Amino acid sequence: MSHAGGVRITKMRLETRGQVPGIDEATFKEIAQEAEKRCPVSNALRGGLEIELEAALM
Fold first, then answer.
1. Could you tell me if 16 and 32 are in contact, meaning their C-beta atoms sit under 8 angstroms apart?
2. Where are the domains of the chain?
3. Per-residue confidence at 3, pLDDT binned at 50, 70, 90?
4. In the list 24, 30, 32, 33, which could disulfide-bond 55, CB 3.0-4.6 Å?
């Protein structure tokens, strides 16, 4: 998307897949969401950026 000041990023999509013995899909997604909330890069960009997370077990 562009605006008067140039190009800017408005949305970021994070996709993560994992194989983790002993946990179910819901637990994996919960852990991924918590990790995204604590991520210093996500937090630095969070101001005007929509962050979408998709997490799934393989």
1. yes
2. 9-57
3. low
4. 32
CA distance 37 to 51: 10
pLDDT tens column, 7-46: 888 899 999 999 999 999 999 999 999 999 999 988 888 8
Asked if residues 53 and 32 have their Cβ atoms less than 8 Å apart, the reply is yes
Residue of 50, 44, 48 whose CA lies nearest to 3: 48
Q: Which of 48, 41, 44, 42 is nearest to 8 (CA)?
A: 48
| Amino acid occupying residue 32 | A
Pairing of strands 2-3, 6-7: antiparallel
